């Protein structure tokens, strides 16, 4: 019954109190807010557990003020609500005129003897009032429901009106802001036009000054042009003379080109021979590298498969290889001394021959004229680039041979160091795998401890359920307190109606202001149109004047540019002629020196070709010796393979034992999972029993509220009981049904055992 007037969604306006008729006229004159709740009715007794309807047998005394079925009218009846039906119709519905007679029970003979007849007579009178007041309450319920429905409809209408008025206000505000923005933009345009007018006036004054300066400079430029034309004619005559001189020089240059082409062909032949020798050398290096990689691969396989026995064999091999490398180094040193001696002798013999030829050529070149020197200078610069490339190629060949000898020694040393390191890493890996076994066992202990933690979590969830039940009782008490809040909301509705009236008055003011602003806007637009017309006229006149002046200035600028270009071309031709004369002199001197160097380099290249052939022969002999040593090592490899097969057989037997141990571990895991599942099912059954007991207690409590459930649904359809929280069940892990077994050999067995471990402890 406490939820009779509560509606959480809609706020009520102040209304007439229906139960004021059941009280005295003095009580009717009290405040409306203090008499609005049904909990003041003496026919209901409030207890801690629930609300119970009082009966005539209860000991609580009923006041004498409720003896009337039709109480006197009060001033509260004269109150009116806005937008409601006429007051006469409401009072006609709420008036109660029936008066029923209720038979009083007979006096108990015990009361006559005790002297309490007066108290019993008062109780008998109250029972008559109780029967008639129940009918009054039923009629009051129906009337209040009608009133509530009407009030809800009127509230919805007023809310819609308020929403429409707010939208209109927002539209007016947006229009006002747009108008102010447009006015600001027009003002900005006016300021820009003023600035443009000022800038055009300044440009006009500057152009006038430039025109006056150009007119003064034109006379001086015309005199300079005349002098430049005379100089150009003299330069043209000199150009014709120089062109004829160039033709003669070109003929001599063509003859020299033919001679240089012959020399180029000889150099190309030499370079081809050098490239062939490079290819042969690269092939030898590739063969050596492939043989080294194969040897290192075989050594690594042997070290991975065998243990300590291989280390002793490796030490023997290292001793043999060290002896072989020392013998190879001694031979290389002996041959290097011989090669150096031969190079020195050849260079000394060729040096004297080259010097004699250079003296003869110097006498020949002194007889050449200045014209031939200039022609040869240009061509020798081009050829000098080709000769420098040949020198660089020869120096690169020397460096490559030196690097190859150094790298061969380093590779022999580093290969053995790498093989030692790989063996040490493999042994350390096996030791680390053995050390990881106790860590794996510790992870199993941690998982068993986590299962105990899950049990403690289940107990904590039970405690949380009990706390939720306590919270439910607190919520029921909060619902009772919300009845008082409804009365406060009614007062707030009065205030909002006053605010709406104020807003309507503000709307009228804003509309008047909008009308005035529209008028101002129209006047400002007319002013802007006039200003635009004036600005267009002024800009048109200024553009016409500027176009005429710009045409005059462009003509003058074109004449100046043509005269400047002619002067520049004349100066350039003079400078080019002087530079060419100086270049011819310098080129003739450089040609003599470079031609001598070319002859010396040709002789040296032929000597180097012979040296390279001898080096290739020595390398072939060394390669044959290496092949004989590799054949000797192949016999020792066969012996090591036999030992490897024996070790593989031992490893297969160890792997079978590992598989049997893994099967036992799987059985233990399945047993642990079975025990965990049994514990979970027992916990779930206990929880279900507690839930059934809780439902039985709830059904007993709901019987007390059975009488007022229909009334609650009519007055407050949103009322709903709080649903209990259902416990969530943890998903159980599925036991793996079966695992496949495979017999693996060598390295595959180790990989399979690692995979099984990783699957088990995930």
TrEMBL record:
Coiled coil: 148-210, 246-287, 444-471
Top-rank taxon, per record: Eukaryota
Region Disordered: start-end pairs: 22-74, 525-544
Keyword Coiled coil (UniProt): yes
Composition bias type Basic and acidic residues, residue spans: 525-536
Keywords: Coiled coil
Protein known as: Synaptonemal complex protein ZIP1
Source taxonomy: Eukaryota, Fungi, Dikarya, Ascomycota, Saccharomycotina
């Amino acid at each position: 019954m406490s939820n009779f007037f509560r509606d959480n969604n809609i706020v009520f306006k102040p209304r007439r109190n229906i139960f004021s008729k059941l009280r005295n006229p003095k009580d009717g004159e009290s405040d409306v807010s203090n008499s609005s709740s049904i909990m003041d009715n003496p026919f209901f007794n409030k207890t801690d557990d629930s609300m119970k309807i009082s009966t005539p047998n209860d000991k609580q005394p009923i006041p004498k003020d409720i003896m009337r079925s039709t109480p006197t009218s009060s001033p509260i009846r004269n109150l009116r609500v806005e937008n409601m039906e006429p007051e006469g119709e409401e009072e006609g519905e709420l008036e109660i005129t029936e008066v029923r007679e209720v038979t009083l029970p007979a006096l108990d003979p015990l009361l006559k003897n005790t002297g309490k007849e007066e108290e019993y007579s008062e109780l008998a009178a109250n029972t008559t009032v109780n029967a008639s007041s129940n009918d009054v309450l039923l009629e009051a319920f129906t009337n209040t429901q009608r009133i509530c429905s009407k009030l809800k409809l009127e509230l919805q209408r007023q809310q819609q009106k308020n929403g429409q008025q707010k939208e209109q206000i927002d539209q007016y505000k947006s229009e006002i802001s747009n108008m102010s923005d447009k006015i600001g933009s027009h003002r900005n345009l006016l300021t820009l036009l003023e600035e443009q007018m000022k800038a055009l006036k300044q440009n006009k004054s500057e152009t006038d000054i430039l025109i006056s300066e150009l007119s003064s400079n034109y006379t001086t430029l015309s005199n300079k042009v005349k002098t430049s034309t005379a100089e150009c004619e003299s330069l043209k005559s000199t150009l014709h003379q120089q062109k004829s001189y160039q033709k003669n020089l070109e003929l001599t240059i063509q003859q020299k080109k033919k001679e240089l082409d012959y020399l180029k062909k000889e150099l190309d032949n030499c370079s081809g021979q050098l490239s062939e020798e490079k290819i042969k050398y690269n092939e030898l290096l590739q063969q050596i590298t492939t043989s080294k990689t194969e040897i290192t691969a075989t050594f690594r396989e042997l070290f991975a498969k065998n243990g300590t026995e291989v280390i002793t064999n490796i030490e023997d091999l290292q001793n043999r290889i060290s002896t072989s490398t020392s013998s190879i180094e001694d031979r290389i040193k002996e041959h290097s001394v011989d090669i150096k001696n031969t190079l020195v002798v050849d260079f000394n013999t060729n040096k004297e021959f080259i010097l004699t030829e250079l003296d003869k050529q110097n006498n020949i070149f002194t007889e050449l004229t200045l014209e031939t020197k200039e022609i040869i200078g240009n061509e020798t610069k081009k050829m000098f680039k080709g000769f420098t490339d040949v020198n660089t190629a020869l120096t690169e060949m020397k460096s490559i041979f030196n690097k190859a000898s150094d790298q061969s020694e380093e590779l022999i040393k580093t290969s053995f160091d790498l093989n030692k390191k790989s063996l040490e890493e493999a042994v350390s890996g096996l030791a680390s795998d053995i050390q990881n076994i106790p860590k794996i066992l510790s992870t199993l202990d941690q998982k068993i401890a986590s299962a105990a933690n899950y049990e403690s979590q289940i107990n904590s969830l039970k405690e949380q359920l009990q706390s939720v039940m306590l919270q439910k009782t607190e919520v029921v008490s909060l619902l009772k307190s919300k009845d008082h809040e409804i009365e406060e909301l009614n007062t707030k509705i009065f205030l909002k109606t006053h605010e709406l009236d104020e807003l309507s008055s503000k709307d009228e003011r804003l509309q008047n202001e909008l009308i005035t602003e529209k008028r101002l806007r129209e006047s400002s637009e007319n002013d802007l149109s006039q200003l635009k017309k004036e600005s267009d006229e002024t800009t048109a006149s200024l553009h016409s004047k500027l176009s005429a002046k710009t045409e005059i200035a462009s003509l003058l600028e074109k004449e100046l540019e043509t005269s400047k270009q002619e002067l520049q071309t004349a100066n350039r031709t003079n400078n080019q002629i002087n530079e060419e004369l100086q270049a011819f002199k310098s080129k003739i001197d450089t040609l003599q020196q470079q031609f001598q160097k070319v002859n010396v380099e040709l002789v040296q290249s032929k000597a180097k070709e012979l040296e390279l052939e001898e080096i290739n022969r020595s390398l072939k002999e060394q390669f044959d010796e290496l092949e004989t040593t590799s054949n000797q090592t192949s016999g020792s490899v066969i012996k090591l393979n036999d030992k490897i097969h024996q070790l593989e057989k031992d490893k297969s037997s160890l792997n079978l034992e590992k598989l049997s141990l893994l099967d036992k571990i799987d059985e233990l895991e399945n047993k642990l999972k079975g025990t965990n599942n049994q514990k979970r099912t027992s916990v779930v059954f206990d929880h279900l029993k507690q839930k059934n007991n809780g439902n039985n207690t709830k059904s007993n409590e709901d019987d007390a509220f059975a009488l007022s459930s229909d009334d609650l649904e009519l007055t407050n359809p949103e009322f709903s009981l709080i649903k209990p929280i259902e416990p969530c069940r943890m998903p159980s892990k599925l036991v793996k049904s079966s695992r496949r077994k495979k017999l693996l050999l060598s390295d595959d067995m180790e990989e399979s055992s690692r995979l099984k471990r990783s699957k088990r402890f995930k």
